[in-house]
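anyone seen this seq b4? input:
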Amino acid sequence: MAHFKKKQAGTKQEVPTSAMPDVVFMLLFFFMVTTVLREVTLKVKLDLTKANNIEKIEEKRLVSYIYMGPERLPQNKFGEDKIQIDDSIVDDIGAIRNIMYDKLIEEPRLIVSLRVDQNSEFGLLTDVQKELQQAGTFRINYSTKRED
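predicted toks r here
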């Protein structure tokens, strides 16, 4: 009886890695382009109020933050309540209307998130709300901390 021998191929089964640096570079480039880094330097003190019923906003790109609280002064001191939009303090409350209207024109689905220090004056908050209403920004969110 004849026995048959199995022939073995002389090639090795290796994964080609010559294109790997190109793939890694493309992935790195993709994530660099699509990642949005928004760092805001707070110029006001914020100690948010606490709440039970909190909803998280999923699309952060649609959110524009307005910060309200005591102005941070040198040597860890605090001044009177100020309003901050992006990285600048807004001294004229009437300017809020124009700034937020321009942002609303850029992004019609804009959500304005008010981040207000719990010890801020309520009258200032009311004035800001009136300016936002005049600008046509009706989607307003109030930022809080989760209650323990």
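The chain has three helices and seven strands. The radius of gyration is 27 Å. kinda curious what u guys think
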